[in-house]
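I am sending you the entry underneath: sequence plus fold tokens. Let me know what the token row says about the fold:
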Amino acid sequence: MKKGLKICFSIIGVIVILGIIFFVVDYNRVQKQKKPIFCIQNPAGIMNDGGTIEYFGLGYKVIDFNTLAGFDDIKIGTWSMDYNDFEEERKAYENTFEENLKSNEEFSRSPENVTIEVDDTTITPESVSIIITDNNEEQYGWGVEFRVQQKVNEEWEDLQYVSDDLSWIDIAYEVNEDNQLTLKLDIEQYYGKLSNGTYRIVKPVYDNGYMDIYSNEFEIKL
């Protein structure tokens, strides 16, 4: 009987220790806005708000918010943590989002007044610099996010990220007095080294909804 109790307590102890280790690892990942790795997705935990997903860990829960209004955050807590616990935070963000929409509608600007040119002196398989020229009266704010597309059989295809754990810093740059902005893109970090082929850069910009602006083509010849 005592031996059985010892085994039972030992098993419980191992589970508790594993739970603490798993929680610490996932907690640190959540603080960096990364998805948990020691959780399983709740099949019934996909919300009808744009893509929020709920995960269960060993004694804890993670909610990865991704709403249509752009609320993108990851929360971690106990199993009792609920989606509606963050309603005020979501509403505050959505109100700000709607106010920004109204402000953008008053801007006199168009993606047609923007060009993105690859600096051909900087082209390598690992990186490239682009020059954004924004001739709008009210210029856009330019983030660091970008995509790379390759021409395959005369069709443009997005390259895949080298990892699902990559993220973009939340910062926006403005053009200078010449209406230009030069950005060096670390292609290798997000897509690996480019092989021989024809490519272009895609920059998303917000204009009453996200849309893509494309650079000119460039080639990699090794």
Notes: The first helix runs from residue 2 to 31. The first strand starts at residue 40 and ends at 46. The chain has a mean pLDDT of 85. Residues 134 and 204 are 14 Å apart (CA to CA).
